[in-house]
Design brief:
Elements (H helix, E strand, L loop, with lengths): L14 E6 L3 H13 L4 E3 L6 H9 L7 E5 L3 H16 L1 H12 L3 H38 L11 H26 L1
Antiparallel strand pairs: 1-3, 2-3
Helix pairs in contact: 5-6
Length: 181
């Protein structure tokens, strides 16, 4: 099994940085792209220790997030990365291609509207479930039943929690009712 990020080559040919990734996600994606095109690539990742990785990135260490290839593959790798980033960044082309392939007709529009209605009903139901849960929690704090088997908190703390939970229930209920319309 090949490693996604192999160790840097040890031969005498120089490594050349062809791209500085914005984050590790982009770097890993580009690393996979280059490896799919049979280009040996290496991604310099930040230090795995939490305080030190932030220090590397904040100090502007130019090697962190760098995508390196062998010197003889540099131009081809730069071209692949540039094409990939240009294609991925041009959302208007992606929208046009999706619309062309989708071939929207009346049946598709009707089906999509039905799915949207169903999704709206699902979120409505979930909103009311949260309201019931918050109201129930407020009620339990108010009556503090004996089956809780713990001493009730002091009266001010208890009533503050009742008020907070009740306000949350009202807020969520109001928000859910407005989203339904």
């Amino acid at each position: 099994m090949t490693s996604l990020n192999p160790s840097p080559p040890t031969n005498l040919e120089n490594l050349v940085e062809i791209h500085r990734a914005r984050d590790e996600w982009e770097g890993t994606l580009l690393l996979g792209l280059l490896q799919d095109h049979n280009i040996n690539a290496y991604l310099r990742r930040p230090t795995p220790l939490p305080p030190l990785d932030a220090a590397d990135q904040l100090t502007g260490n130019p090697r962190v997030g760098g995508l390196f290839v062998l010197e003889h593959d540099a131009e081809r790798a730069r071209q692949l990365v540039r094409e990939f980033l240009d294609t991925a960044a041009d959302e208007s082309l992606l929208v046009e291609e999706a619309a062309r392939r989708l071939r929207v007709d009346k049946d598709t529009i009707h089906r999509l509207r039905g799915e949207l209605r169903e999704e709206k009903r699902t979120f409505e139901f979930l909103g009311w479930v949260v309201v019931v849960f918050l109201a129930s929690a407020a009620l339990l704090w108010a009556i503090w039943p004996a089956w809780l088997k713990s001493a009730p908190p002091t009266a001010p703390v208890r009533w503050v929690m009742v008020v907070v939970l009740a306000l949350c229930a009202v807020f969520v209920g109001n928000w859910t009712a407005r989203k339904i319309r």
